[in-house]
Amino acid sequence: MSKFTLAATAAMGLESLVANELKDLGYECQAENGRVLFKGDEKAIARTNLWLRTADRVKIIVGEFPAKSFEELFENTKRLNWEDYLPEDAEFPVSGKSVKSELFSVSDCQAIVKKAIVERLKSRYKTVSWFQETGPLFKIEVSLLKDKATLTIDTSGAGLHRRGYRAGQGEAPIKETLAASLIKLTNWHPDRPFVDPFCGSGTIPIEAAMIGQNIAPGFNREFVSESWGWISPDIWEDVRMEAEDTAKYGQPLDISGFDIDHKMVEIAKQNSMEAGFGELLEFKQMQVKDFTTKKEYGVIVGNPPYGERLGDKPAVEHMYREMGKAFSRLDTWSVYMITSHPDFEKHYGKQATKKRKLFNGFIRTDYYQFFGPRPPRK
After folding, report:
1. Phi/psi at 154 (5° precision)
2. Domain residues of the chain, as ranges?
3. Which fold has domain 176-244+252-370?
4. CATH number of the 4-154 domain
5. How far is Cα of residue 151 from the mean position of the Cα atoms in its chain?
6. Which pLDDT score is estimated for 132?
7. Under 8 Å CB-to-CB from 142, ≥6 apart: which residues?
8. CA 207, CA 197: separation in Å to the nearest integer?
9. Are 359 and 11 in contact (CB under 8 A)?
10. What is the model's pLDDT at position 171?
11. What is the pLDDT of residue 310?
C-alpha cells in the first residue's frame, strides 16, 4: 500500500469538526484554513470518503511549490510523479483558482498544468500521440494562494454532502455536511429527544438519525476513486463491510421534524424513507409557536428563515419572538439555532450561552447555542 498526503476540505469554521472525525477514524491530522491534512493509504481514501460527515471532499495532494512564473509552474508540475496516479487512458480535466498570486489568469494556469502533465506522461508511457482520455476520471485542481501552487486530485467525485437519500428538496436546502456539523456541535445523545422545528426536506433529522445509529454517511453512494485501477475493489468492499458491522440499526431514536409547509413535510417523509429510516422519524405540519412537549432534556436544532429579503424581516422577527415564548417553557431542553439575523437574541428574548460563526453556503451566520441542564445520570 502507498502512503499519500491527503486533505479533507471543509467549509470555514468546520475544520476542527473534520479534524475530530479524522482522529476518531485513527488518523493524525493538522487543521488549516479550509482543509485538514493527514497521511493515509488506499484504505484511508476509501474510509474517509465513506465516514466523514462534515468534510466537503477528500483530495490527494500531489505537490506543493512556489510558482511566480508560468515557467516555474510548468517545470514544477512536470517534476511530479503523475504516472503513479494516472493510467495511460486517464481522463484528467484541470480546474483552477488563484488568490493573491502573480499568476492570476486561471485559464492560463489550467492550460499550463495540463500541458506539463501531458509532457510528463508522454515521457513515462513512451508515447508521442495525444492521450485519448477514454479511461477513469481524475479531476485535477491547481490552486494558487500567495504564489504557492497546490496540485490535487479529487477522490470523492460528487461532494460528500451528496449522501444519496435526497429525493426532493425545498428552495434553500441546508447542505447535509452543515446539518451534520450543527448536530455535532450540540450536547445531543441518541437516548434524548431531538426536534427540528423548521425541518424543510428533513435533512437535519435524517443526519441526526444517521449519527444516532452510527451509519456511515457515504454508505449509499459511489465515489470517483472506485474506478481507479490502483485501489482494489476489495478495499471498498472491506470498508463497506466495516460500516455495516459497526452500524447500530437497533438503536431506538426519538427524532421529530416539523414544518409550516405540508408539502415540505411530505418531501421530508419521502427522504427519510430513501435514507432507510421509514417510520422511525416523525414529521408533522406545525408552526413553531405551537410546539409543546412533556418530554425532558431534549435538544432542538433549527435553521429558521433569516429574513434576508427586506419584506420578510418583520414576519421573521415576529416568528423569532413567538419561538422564544414557546421554548421558554422547556426548562430542561437545549436549543440551537443558525441564522444570519444580527438581532436574533433580542427578538428571541434570551442571550445565547455560546455563539459560533459559521457559513451557510455564502451567507455568514451565527450558531446560537442555549444550553439546558445536564440530564440526571441513570
Report:
1. -80, 125
2. 4-154, 176-244+252-370
3. Rossmann fold (3.40.50)
4. 3.30.2130.30
5. 21
6. 85
7. 73, 77, 94, 95, 96, 97, 109, 110, 113, 149, 150, 151
8. 15
9. yes
10. 67
11. 66
Phi, psi of 6 (to 5 degrees): -120, 155
Give pLDDT, residue 121: 94
What is the Cα–Cα distance from 104 to 102, expressed in whole angstroms?
6
**Position of cell 503523475?**
82
C-alpha cell at 162: 451528496
What is the per-residue pLDDT for 129? 72
Predicted pLDDT of residue 163: 95
φ/ψ region of 191 (left if φ > 0, alpha if ψ in -120 to 50, else beta) reads alpha
What are the residue ranges in the chain where pLDDT is below 50?
A: none
What was the pLDDT predicted at 233? 97
C-alpha cell at 59: 483530495
Q: Please choose, from the candidates 84, 145, 86, the residue with its C-alpha nearest in 3D space to the C-alpha of residue 114.
A: 86
Question: What are residue 127's DSSP bridge partners?
Answer: none
Give residue 377's pLDDT: 83
C-alpha span between 174 and 144 (Å, rounded)? 29
Interior angle at CA 97, CA 96 and CA 102, nearest 5 = 115
CA distance 203 to 218: 15
Query: Which amino acid does the sequence have at 83?
Result: E
CA nearest neighbour of 139 among 217, 47, 219, 60 = 60
Q: What's phi and psi for 258, nearest 5 deg?
A: -125, 150
Q: Which three cell numbers stand for residue 4?
A: 499519500
DSSP string, 176-243: HHHHHHHHHTS---TTS-EEETT-TTTHHHHHHHHHHTT--TTTTS--GGGG-TTS-HHHHHHHHHHH
